[in-house]
Amino acid sequence: MHLETLSLTGFRNYRSQEVSFAPGLNLLSGPNGHGKTNLLEAIHYVCLAHSQRTRKDKELIEWNGNAFVLRLLGRIGGLAHAQSVEYAETGAKRVKVNGRESKRLSDLIGHFEVVSFSPEDLDLIRSGPQLRRRFLDILLCQFSLDYLDTLRHYNQALKQRNSLLKQAGAGNDVLAAYDAPLVEAGARITLMRRRALADLAPLARDCYRSISDGGEDLELALSGCVSEAEEEPALREDFHRKLLALRGTEREAGLTLAGPHREDLAISFSGKAVRDFGSQGQKRSVALSLKLASARLLDARNRRPPILLLDDVFAELDETRRLRIGELIRGQGQVFIANPRAADLPFQAEKIITLRCGRVVV
Ligand SMILES: Nc1ncnc2c1ncn2[C@@H]1O[C@H](COP(=O)(O)OP(=O)(O)OP(=O)(O)O)[C@@H](O)[C@H]1O
Ligand SMILES: [Mg+2]
Q: How far apart are CA 133 and CA 130, in angstroms?
């Protein structure tokens, strides 16, 4: 699986540009502020239906423009694959996968698997649980379209239930009708997250060990779950019981107070939260380990390595760590590395794409 060409129109600082890629390691180079991260963002958007930098799609439109278009061509299992997205200022989207139109942006997901890493991913460790849940969701959606569907149902049920809880007059019987879909989808999400984490945790521990030369033992777990039950029916029952117990409090709060939307990914060294006790360098290495481990998990589950988008990974790292990360990345399929200077790379790129003011220098 690899990307061959991407054409960008009206996207960030790209007025109109086609870029072609090598199947192995691609280096995006060029001075600060000339479009390296923007190009990684475009790849991320057309493969995963969202930007890794912003939730506001309008920001992606070139200033003074009113729409952007991204068209991607690549190969999956030896076969040509095309997907494109047009996004207008009005919010209108047009998605096409292999020539077939689709109304849902999320139909872009599940063809080209992608894992991205940038210095901002330090927030995965430092900030609140929302980003960590998102990290898990993005990973799971890429190896299970069933997860994507279940998550969509859960979020829909949650939204409806919350708006009902805000209405003073809504009776218990009405509310009970909304518990069922929430519990059904919620229990499945918790189990799927927990199972994925059971596979991800040893991979992350190994990646962290490689980067930190032995170092501490990295542990991952799902926290804040309604129950520790391992089977779906038991988990559903526990979730339902919890909702009944919380009825009064939820009515006062006007919010659903238990479920997967309150879970967190607990990240620790020997039981101590990395968020509270880790050094800056440890946090950075943990964030990178999470991402590299998710790439390995996707590789194992989908039997092909995902595309790696690495933005400024070598910034602020000493020579030894650069080499170790180089070792982890090598032979991982198609990789895109944005780095102002080619000299910082611990290995040779198959293709160097030099960018100036949103154009490829040839
Ligand atoms: N919506 C937009 N329309 C036009 N230009 C934009 C838009 N959003 C950002 N830019 C411009 O894109 C440039 C930033 O590009 P990008 O973040 O890709 O730089 P970079 O090459 O990764 O730089 P660095 O090496 O500093 O990370 C800035 O000059 C910014 O002004
Ligand atoms: Mg950048």
A: 5
Give domain limits for the chain. Answer: 1-112+306-362
pLDDT for 150-201, tens place per residue?
Answer: 999 999 999 999 999 998 777 778 888 899 999 999 999 999 999 999 999 9
Ligand 1 atom 19: the closest Cα is on which residue?
Answer: 33
Ligand 1: residue of 8, 12, 19, 117 to mutate (most ligand atoms within 8 A of CB) is 12
- pLDDT tens digits for range 122-149: 999 999 999 999 999 999 999 899 999 9
Contacts for 35 with CB less than 8 Å, ≥ 6 apart: 12, 13, 14, 355, 357, 358, 359
Model pTM score: 0.93
Of 9, 14, 34, which is best to mutate to test ligand 1, by the most ligand atoms within 8 angstroms of its C-beta? Answer: 34
Residue type, 46: V
33 CA → ligand 1 middle, Å:
5
1-112+306-362: CATH number: 3.40.50.300
12 ligand 1 Cβ < 6 A: yes
